[in-house]
Amino acid sequence: MKSDPQPNEYLYVMILLLLLLMGFLPPGDHAFYVSVIEVRHIDQVPSATITVKVFSDDLQTALRQARGDVDPALANLCLTEADAIRSYFAEHLQVKINDQLLSLTHTSCGFEGDAHQIQFTAGCPEQWSHLEIHADYFMEVYPTQMQMVHINEHGENYTLRLSKSRPLKQVTFR
Asked: I need a surface site. Which of 55, 67, 104, 121 has the fewest CB within 10 A?
């Protein structure tokens, strides 16, 4: 007898379909304001990796609103706007593990297709009991912006959805 899919499986399928759909939209024109945040931690290791995947034009628009003048070439944002990207996400992305605010270190930025991938690392407790994430980036520009958060902690996967009305959520680990 086949068991029903778990709620997380439905969410993963929906996210996959959404990401596939986004790949077929013309550059600079999309109907969804969504990003993906991946938080990864290996048990007994005192560090975490946080990867943010965003539409490039949304990143450019948010930086322009925050700073005024931004490089018009999307492919160059990682190089020409690295300090602005660090500063922007320092203000709009906070992660706490076991009530300890992580100090995010920007480690890489890449551009592919119509998206940017921005990666951070942070020292953190080796054992996680709970995580709190606040991610309100782009919400000052796009009120319907959503952040899909995928957390992999010691091989277990958790998914959260953040929005302008709920930019902060918590998860307790088993």
From this structure: 67
